[in-house]
Amino acid sequence: MTRTEKGALGALTGLSLGDALGMPTQSMSPAAIHEAYGRVDTLRDAIADQPIASGMPAGAVTDDTEQALIVAELIIDGKGHIDPKELAKRLLAWEDDMKSRGSLDLLGPSTKLALEQVRQGADIMTTGRTGTTNGAAMRVTPVGIANRPKDTRRLANRIYESCQVTHDTVAGFQSAALIATTVSLGLEGMTVRQALQESLRLVPAMETSGAWTPKASVPARARQAIRLSEEFSDEGDFERHLIEDCGTSVESNESVAAAFALAWRFAYDPQSALFAAVNLGGDTDTIAAMTGAMTGASAGPEAFDPTLCSRVASVSHLDLQKTARGLIALRQ
Fold first, then answer.
1. Complete domains list, the chain, with CATH
2. Which parts are annotated binding residues for Mg(2+)?
3. How far are the Cα atoms of 24, 26, 270, 307, 331 from residue 180, in angstroms, in the given order?
């Protein structure tokens, strides 16, 4: 397996494992997580009163992985391009299927608002103009795998294709671009920290037609979060201040920033980064999924516990190698 192939598989593996580890803790407070599970350091069944994933089995993934795989399919079918109309159609079909199964794991707030407008016949050029949450960032990893970073304009265009219909804002685009660019740089052979730093340099310079919003800048918050990750030697102090000073909500300038802090702090131990992420509270599955994608792209799949990865693949019926190969063929 080449370095690029290892990076592609590592990114998808880290994404799915982080997602599955965070499934039982998502949308819970740190105190509620501790009361229900203690310290989460393995795959766990969701408790019966889990607010989103009630009773889901250990190893099950959520919308983070499933939507990323939808994006991957569209990229492969479109020979590198994503048709925003087809993305909207696939996401609506995915949610309808989830509803039919009685699942509460549905579309996030920005995506749901945009796609309800699509369902009612709105022009997709207008539907994403308020989306600032992390829905685009959580599903963008395949774009980073399929596109090299040296052509930043093409990379930016492909990222925009993936977020326009639901997150057509500066914050929505930059959050997705930070994840995709970091993943793409990791596949080029950069270390985790090198990729994070270079992504923070490249993304603010990328042009986007996304709408301005009064939200704090995602790259600026990510830089602050990295500094926070270096300030505290004690893990408990670091996690507490990450929760209080950065935030772990679905807003991109909190969750993407938190993922950058975790990836930076645990650059040499990606598995521990995921364990830290899923105990923070808030949008734990998405923070862990983004952290896993970025660290896995540089470190490869061997950075993660193979037993846990095998269980996720089995329970969630994933063939990540096939997906990685399809995306890498387009990258070449």
1. 3-205+216-331 (1.10.4080.10)
2. 62-64, 283, 285-286
3. 26, 23, 18, 27, 13
